[in-house]
Design brief:
It is built from five helices and no strands. The chain has 101 residues and is mostly helical.
């Protein structure tokens, strides 16, 4: 089992993303989004899994708004979704056991 490593996560995500999104997101942008995701998780019950689709939509909207607010850039829902899929693939590769509370 491995621990989450942001540096490795960024490298994994860059390799996972399609070329057109790689050209739009540099490493610093990916670090920014990883931090923003943590901020969102800290402020919400997103991990409750009660309505995953609704909660994912809230996360996507949060990331889009934060990126504009913090002058990172304008991103589409599809671009953010690809980023989330890439981050999820990295997390899945770590074989971190899920909390079965």
């Amino acid at each position: 089992m491995f621990e989450y490593d942001e540096e490795r996560a960024v490298e994994f995500i860059q390799n996972y993303l399609p070329q057109e999104l790689k050209e739009k997101l540099d490493d610093d942008d990916i670090y920014y989004f990883l931090d923003a995701m943590c901020e969102f998780y800290d402020k919400s019950d997103w991990l409750s899994e009660e309505d995953e689709e609704k909660e994912e939509e809230e996360l996507i909207q949060f990331l889009i708004k934060q990126a504009v607010k913090d002058e990172i850039g304008k991103f589409t829902k599809d671009e953010i979704k690809l980023l989330l899929v890439a981050e999820s693939a990295y997390s899945d590769s770590l074989d971190i056991p899920e909390d079965d509370d």
